[in-house]
Amino acid sequence: MADSSKIKPLALRHPIDNLPELHTALLKWFASEGKTYPWRETTDPWSILVSEIMLQQTQIATVLDRGYYANFLARFPDPISIADADEEEILKAWEGLGYYRRVRNLQNTARQIVTSHDNQFPTDHGQILDLPGVGPYTAGAVASFAFNQPEPIVDGNIARVLSRLFDFHGEVDSSAGQKQIWAWAGQLVHSKKARQWNSAIMELGQTYCSAKNPNCDGCPVWEFCLTRTPDLLPSKKAAKKTVLVDEFTLLCRDQFGRVLMQQQASGARREGFWKLPERDAEAVAHLHSCYRAKYGITHHRVTLYVYQCAPESLPEAAKGTKESWFTVDELEALPISSPYRKALDKLLSDSLML
């Protein structure tokens, strides 16, 4: 049962029946309080696509504060610049962002733009949707932000806003729930100011209509919101249980100071990236543990163990595994995902390992 102190007054106006007034209220607020981001300062579809792909699984602060967005666009400013780039180069440029399938899809998208669209970014929503790795949200984002087309978008923030705006108690992540939320998003999108509207409703979900402790009193569209119990919405399916995984790896250096690395195989989550050589628990049982850290990835909580190992004591690798020796300088140029990069930085800075 909802806390009576968190029950808000009934809406005075239905959002659909009073759509022009809703548009005016939200856009007025956004014009005065909306945040400024690099991708909001451009209508270049490639720059917008890159931002949307980066932000799918990465927080805005990470993308901006660590320079990922600016650095990536400096290296790959347009589709043709990445279409024929070496995979290791694009993986290196994406290093630290995780979910590396995103950048592979981005390269495939660029190739299709170059070959099928004469290096011109398609403006038709359907053609954008046909690009590799581009789903309904990303297609709508590019169409509305780059071309101001009245295409709806739905992310977690917008789904939360709409579930409260329409007092929707169905599961927003179910098929039926998604269908309903997208339908409402389509009804609400501004026909002439889609760019501003989609940015505004998304930012509303990031600010006043946040997941916890929504600020209904200050909300610019509170009078159009049908729910009286915002803290209970949105409804979602039960979260998947986190799986605990142990990963056993080696730090092995030869007489020249080179480090042995293992390339992750085709089909692996981080295909093409390099990591510390992995072995099973039995193979490392007799070795000295020198590092331990935890990291999370898609419903998994991984404990990474690193063991010191001399070349002459190196346990045999699994059949088909690719392993190579690299100098410390060469490691800097390799695409290495964050958990292993952090381990290497720590271990190789230790005077005992030099």
Automatic annotation (TrEMBL):
SUPFAM superfamilies reported for this sequence: DNA-glycosylase, Nudix
Protein purpose: Adenine glycosylase active on G-A mispairs. MutY also corrects error-prone DNA synthesis past GO lesions which are due to the oxidatively damaged form of guanine: 7,8-dihydro-8-oxoguanine (8-oxo-dGTP).
InterPro entries named among the record's database cross-references: DNA_glycosylase, Endonuclease-III-like_CS2, Endonuclease3_FeS-loop_motif, HhH-GPD_domain, HhH_base_excis_C, HhH_motif, MIG/MutY, MutY_C
Catalytic activity reported: Hydrolyzes free adenine bases from 7,8-dihydro-8-oxoguanine:adenine mismatched double-stranded DNA, leaving an apurinic site
Keywords, ordered alphabetically: 4Fe-4S, DNA damage, DNA repair, Glycosidase, Hydrolase, Iron, Iron-sulfur, Metal-binding
Family statement drawn from the similarity comment of this UniProt entry: Belongs to the Nth/MutY family.
Superkingdom to which the source organism belongs: Bacteria
PROSITE patterns: ENDONUCLEASE_III_2
Pfam families per the UniProt record, alphabetical: EndIII_4Fe-2S, HHH, HhH-GPD, NUDIX_4
SMART domains membership: ENDO3c
CDD domains: ENDO3c
A single BP term in Gene Ontology: base-excision repair
PANTHER family given in the database record: ADENINE DNA GLYCOSYLASE (PTHR42944:SF1)
Keyword Glycoprotein applies: no
EC number: 3.2.2.31
Enzyme class per UniProt: hydrolase
Cofactor annotation: [4Fe-4S] cluster
GO function term, MF aspect, one: oxidized purine DNA binding
Protein name: Adenine DNA glycosylase
Record bears the keyword Iron: yes
Residues of the HhH-GPD domain: 54-207
